[in-house]
TrEMBL record:
Domain named Protein kinase: residues: 8-280
The organism of origin for this protein: Coffea arabica
Gene name linked to the record: LOC113701181
Protein name per the record: Uncharacterized protein isoform X3
Source species, domain of life: Eukaryota
Keywords: ATP-binding, Kinase, Nucleotide-binding, Transferase
UniProt: ATP binding residues: K38
Amino acid sequence: YPKYDRDYIQHEEIGSGFYGKVYRCEAKLEGTDCAIKKILLTKSEEVQRVFNEAKMLSLVRHPNVVGYYQAWIEDYRKPNNSKTRKSCSSSYGPRQKMMYIHMELCKGGSLASKLAKEKELRTDMAWSYSRQILEALQCIQRKNIIHRDLNPKNIFIDDSGTVKIGDFGLAMRKDEDVSSNKNLSPVGAALYRAPEMRKGVCITNKVDMFALGLILFELFCPRGRSEKVIQMLNGSESPCEICEEYKVDETAKPLILKLLRTDPLKRPSAADLLQDLDTLEVTRKNTQETEIQQR
Ligand code: ATP
Ligand code: MG
Ligand code: MG
């Protein structure tokens, strides 16, 4: 009996992407809900490349990264729906290989769908989301991993509202592949690609920080949340003017501008930006206290 049918009950499809489909499943033994990503392997694909996603996920264990349980590959035969089938054996398609990734289920869907549903995101929510994404990125960067596909569709929310970075399909170790040209070709959602990716130079984890800059813009600027504006902002020589035009939150603006710097070396790391957030927090608390004392 194949493991998937033996150990899980498949429920509805909860998402699909370029590489695979994701289903809500019930783990029979534990009796709990989980998410399973199914990736059909094509002949040309090396198992190693597909396992990369599971490997990267397993390396970063963090409350703000989608939890990983296990991954495996098994034979898969697509059931034939043809009514003219003659025998039992012809009711299945050819034998193929399918990879399964058992993950934690994020019932709240993606940040993209959340932003599409909510016209205005409360500022305190935007700060909370930013901090959570940064905590995850700090952990990812400590492990020398570059996500390379950070965008609102790959950030999920669980049922208690916790934000989790997912889809490590394009993630890579910084210390690996320096000799290969793997990190030279532009990858990930085109809208969120850092300028250096277009130049075909060796990229660093600062590409994730650039993508974060655009995500923060969306979090703190309800008016500017459109593909057209993001496209304009990405590659703009004067992001400051765009932030002004679309009335980005004044406190968040300097952080966004730092992240969108063209020179990756001038962009802050996740740890740097978390320090900025802490400083802002202290300033905010002090202002509140003085206000109370003055009353
Ligand atoms: P892409 O085309 O972005 O590379 P992909 O094929 O690599 O996509 P994912 O981004 O991992 O697939 O997942 C596709 C969609 O499935 C997500 O956008 C999300 O809506 C949903 N999804 C994925 N993982 C989970 C999860 N753990 N919990 C809930 N939903 C999930
Ligand atoms: Mg995805
Ligand atoms: Mg992917």
